[in-house]
């Protein structure tokens, strides 16, 4: 039998510290795999290496192409992708449906690399792990044409099925290329949901053929307030929207990285841009403006007007075919009831539907939209305010005002995604020394705080099963460039990724800190801007 050294065994010490033993390189993988052994020796990857799909459908091809594309510049040629029997000098890919859908095993040996995964998704995550075994310079296409990959045996699968990142493109618009960059960042972290916040008071960002004024009028604000509602404005219009073709392009780009795009169409609040486009949908009839300042506005969709529902259903009819996602996010947060209290149509609705108050009117609104979506094969997800006034059994709650709403929802049997502002709001400051930071909305969520989130804390075993996973949100009132987006999300996204992926009992912040340094090298090589606080100490 061939002699080899198992230098570091099993999960509790998954990190291998470099030593001068026979050709062992440091292995730092984020999120931390469930099981990792580092074994002496290496596989030599060269232009002659092939990616060989032994079992699996064409669904694995995007994963293979991703890895091949990653290496093309360093090797001078793309890695060839082929189908065939298991062979040497190859990355042999096996899809084995007996494994969990996102699970994978990755074995790197002298003669070959073997990926065995439950589905194409798992294959993609195996390639993302393999990526982190390559030198960071590969990200810049400068790793050279002969790459030693440390021998390892890895078995891995995520703790949660839902691992998300939200980007608000309403407060500031980000063009398609930048959205793709954001999706690339998610892929590196094995995040599998991109929540695209497409509409808000300050802009409507998705083309709807039936309602052209949404983009003609609703996608542009005249000017933007300077700082935090100072009363001083910049005098410069800000706008932008995605055409249907561009939405399809983004959805496909994400799908090629096994990321599902969840569109958010805000209702009944955060509706100023829609109301500016179609004033008859508001309780007062307007006139309304696309907001140029920040906050929560009294002007919301009229819940008593049938036209409101015809409009929203028309919008959703066009959204549904663009997004394969099982979920549509319907917002539901921060809807003041000021106008509804006075509006004759809203009063009449409350009477006719025998509702107790405006909170039940909001619940009526959300449930009606939910029925419409359910009938078209979609599920709704909404911010935790959708609990107020009663919630259907089938809605998923996104808990943002801490974990309280999520805990409440799980206790009554609803599914939950945890995205508490206490841990997962990446628009908040990440340092106490705010004077040294780009201007931000407030708060304090350093990397360590993100890392400390346990999404099932406070729940019993049964309730914990309802926690689908975690997400972090990037609201962009004060964030206008992709470079700033990166600064706010990296490396906090790495901490979030590990919260979502790694079993709680295997997570330790000190251990994470040792590994995240390797990831930062990769950010650097990719040209990503990232917050330096962790790395300056
Ligand atoms: C939110 O932050 N208003 C969901
Ligand atoms: Zn009304």
Description of the structure:
This protein is of the alpha/beta class and 537 residues long. The protein folds into two domains: 2-156, Chitobiase/beta-hexosaminidase domain 2-like (Chitobiase, domain 2); 162-536, Glycosidases (TIM Barrel), CATH 3.20.20.80. 31% of the residues lie in helices and 19% in strands. The chain contains 17 helices and 20 strands. Helix 3 links the parallel strand 9 and strand 10. Zinc ion (ZN) is lined by residues 283, 302-304, 339-340, 343, 345-346.
Rg from Cα: 24 Å
Known CATH architecture of the largest domain: Alpha-Beta Barrel
What is the typical, i.e. mean, pLDDT?
95
Bound molecules: acetamide, zinc ion
Q: Which parts are unreliable, with pLDDT below 50 for 5 consecutive residues or more?
A: 1-20
State the distance separating the first and last CA atoms: 46 Å
| CATH homology group of the largest domain | Glycosidases
Instruction: Please give the order of strands in the largest beta sheet.
Output: 1-2-8-6-7-5-3-4
List keywords for this structure.
single chain, 537 residues, alpha/beta, Chitobiase, domain 2, TIM Barrel, 2 domains, eight-stranded mixed sheet, eight-stranded parallel beta barrel, 17 helices, 31% helix, disordered N terminus, binds acetamide, binds zinc ion
